[in-house]
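Allow me, if you will, to draw on your knowledge of protein folds for a short while. I am sending you one protein, given as its amino acid sequence and as whole-number tokens for its backbone shapes. Kindly check, if you would, that the fold set down in the tokens agrees with what the sequence suggests. The record follows directly beneath this note:
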Amino acid sequence: MKKKHLKILYISQYYPPEIGATQTRAFEMARNLVNRGHQVTVLTEFPNHPTGIIPKQYRFKFFKREHDSGIDILRMWVFARPKKNFLTRIIFYFSFMFTAIIGGLAIRKKYDVVYATSPPLFVAGAGYVISFLRGIKFVMEVRDLWPESAVVLGELSNKFFIRLSEKYEKFLYTKAVKIVTVTQGIYDRLIQMDIQEVKLNLIINGVNTELYQPARKQASILGEWSVDESNFVVAYTGLHGLIHGLDFVIEVAHQLRNEDKILFVFIGDGVRKDSLMTKAKEFKLKNIIFMDAKQENELACYVQNCDAGLATTKSIELCKGTIPVKMFTYMACSKPVLLCVDGEARSIVEQSSSGIYIEPENAEQLKLAILKLKANRKLCKSMGQKGRQLVEQHYSRAALAQKLEQCLLDSIGEN
């Protein structure tokens, strides 16, 4: 039987050239779906994350159409501001919800399915409205449980808004014909919420194994860091956010300040970055470098030049369901993972022997793990090789997109 080629409206508020795990997942899924013969239109915002500043080429416009890697892209106006507080964030989320609905209804092309990724939960709301008014199937991706995560992190405390958000969340789950979760923890939580298991599909995060590959270190990047191949470089890549609990890493760098040839490299942006830089400056640390966020094609080169990759979260129950994308990028480049994340991510790393688990925010354990790897390059190589083997077999973006393809075909009754 000939496979049906789908017409997919893929809604993601965040999308490249913005940098982050959400943006990368959306682009890689869309690109691989196109490569499998489907037509994909991405409905997204004008780029602004995380600065809140919209580039000049998008200003004084309501929408802009683009085309990249076979993907049609419709970018919509959004209320973005550098100053972020509860009010500006809510307006930001609602503004995209409304402009996305307008954009999704205005496109003349016919679609088989709307695929909306959340949080923000308002994106899923836009997806549902578009699917309802256009009479097409609605599939929802859940990358994080909201409002539950916002409550735990202290971003949402008003009891009325919490109850309202929970009802809104449950409404969307019931309206979706299929739900994609990115961790087993989210999958299990939705079952606890009485969501029908037949709706649920587990498609976790992964990595572009063609872009992130093992490679020899480059003199140009080592020179940029003012080190040579004898140094031991620990890299942290990605968002410097509240949930990542990075302060203890600065403490570790301080404890290792007199240790010969150890360098910490932080690559990325986020709300905690200025605070981390201030703390490192107060300690007068010379073994830390902070770099701006990099696009994926640039970031791969920096990961290839480190000796170990660091992934962290705060020591809270919510984070046990987290599987950081960055750990797969380290594995793909054959780098051992220093994993300060409990739960599912820990199981992946420990069962594959691709890194060392450290209790979240445990400075002493992280220090000892770094010293262990620095003293045993053979162990680093072995862990790196096992990580590469694991992602090739189970976590390549192409294979995960194939699973999403099947989920979308099932949503419209094409088995």
About this structure: The chain has two domains: 7-206+396-411, 219-394.
